Amino acid sequence: MKEVVAGIDIGGTNTVYGLVEKTGNIVAEGRFKTADYPEIDDFVTVLVSSIKSLMETKPGIKLVGIGIGAPNANYHRGTIELAPNLAWKGIVPMAEYVRKKIDVPVAITNDAKAAAIGEMLFGGAKKMKNFIILTLGTGLGSGIVVNGEVLYGHTGFAGELGHTTVVPGGRDCGCGRQGCFETYGSASGLVRTVLNLLSEMREESTLRDIPSSQLTSRQIVEAAAKNDPIALEALDYTAEMIAFGIANAVGFSSPEAIFLFGGLAKAGEVLFAPIREYVNQMVMPIFKGTVKIMPSAISENNAGVLGAAALAWNELK
Amino acid sequence: MKEVVAGIDIGGTNTVYGLVEKTGNIVAEGRFKTADYPEIDDFVTVLVSSIKSLMETKPGIKLVGIGIGAPNANYHRGTIELAPNLAWKGIVPMAEYVRKKIDVPVAITNDAKAAAIGEMLFGGAKKMKNFIILTLGTGLGSGIVVNGEVLYGHTGFAGELGHTTVVPGGRDCGCGRQGCFETYGSASGLVRTVLNLLSEMREESTLRDIPSSQLTSRQIVEAAAKNDPIALEALDYTAEMIAFGIANAVGFSSPEAIFLFGGLAKAGEVLFAPIREYVNQMVMPIFKGTVKIMPSAISENNAGVLGAAALAWNELK
Known about the structure:
Chain A has nine helices and 13 strands. By secondary structure, chain A is of the alpha/beta class.
């Protein structure tokens, strides 16, 4: 019998699940729309039956554990708590609900922490004991690994770098505060920076022809590739702000590497090169040259499932 | 035979050493002037003979380990590296030098990390797995404990919160950069804040009669106790800056408690009360009420020896 775990990535739009070997090989995969099941009981029933059906398509495999990545998940309590983009309100004891229906160990953690474990088991951090992954999407998530373990802290919510303050009194954040790293360093932060520069700068730019509600980080990166002055300036400023957050994180946990993941990380060297330069300027002398800054080695298509599966395998160690 | 370790606190002025039981009881203590021995060989010879002499005054004890706290100490390498306030230049393999003369396990770490271990073994953090100690003296040191272990990171230099940036482009720091937490949140930061307020404010103040080169944080705290408006404003601003550093640290490692230690921490509630209030305003909602902010439970007189001894006992676990 070939041992697999189920990796489940619960997102606001889709729930993606896969059967994953210890090597990171995805044996089979499936998905359904999360919002089709606004009742948690229905969701769990469909999730478990989907996994069981998937198992039946692959004879000779044995399920040994389940890992779940979800927004606002609390690893210590096995819960999803007050997730704004999910229909289930309050505190959902998701790990317990799933375990009641399949008798294997079930663990849950938030997306960025799952991504960190994925990077450690299957990605670019295989031999690293100290690293950080930043997920640069609509928000800015982070997973911090110290001494080979994900940092959860006293509450289970450690690693909220996206909501550390980089500009006191700065941009309004969805968390109700101002100047959070997320409002500058994420894909949506880049869009906000362009909007600001459209007011500050007088240069021509194709970005002026796009309604602000439709402007995306991808359009900005594409414009930068065509030397659009506002796009270039916005990327440089974003790189500087990401570097600022990284430099302070380096002072805190002195990681061997920072992995960047998600929409904005796809910008490539136009973002990575200035980030590296700014970080080297900003860190204390003793940290210069001690931290690699690189893209995640996990493909974004599989990252959710692989991260959740890595969580499960890591628990079984 | 009663087992003890030697705790050695190497400072720019004095080297203090003591024999310490596992309970934290200091059996005997001694000291000499660090600067009397500018040659490292002489220093080690005197240090070791001092410890042996001290042992002889207490029959029936057995030395099982040595812990050393020193500025710029690297735990991983057992070295003191480029310490600006010590006479020995370059990289000093202190742990190895001492071990050559006394055949017991020798560990070395920097002062603030030793203070963290001291707090964990003998102080207010006895049952805590996640906490941070900030040493608010001339500089601002920090020791971070996560999952019950001191955070060293990839380089051994993790936990440099004093040199994370709180005000980009702000006050010049001894590290060569600007706006470090240390330049606002330490005892010398408080003095700098008063100097700034003397220029900004027009209120009468006894602090105007003290040459700036002689102004101390103690004088400022005393003036605040007499309702001196500049001293009060300076303490409030310092509390806000310390709270800012704490709030960002909470987002990083979600500690159960922050311990404040050193000259400035002696200010008491005039500093602690506003720090607690500002932290509660500044942290993300999920962290509100999750972190205690309190004075170190270790007396400053013994802290150096106890921290170093705690390091030694912790290694023997």
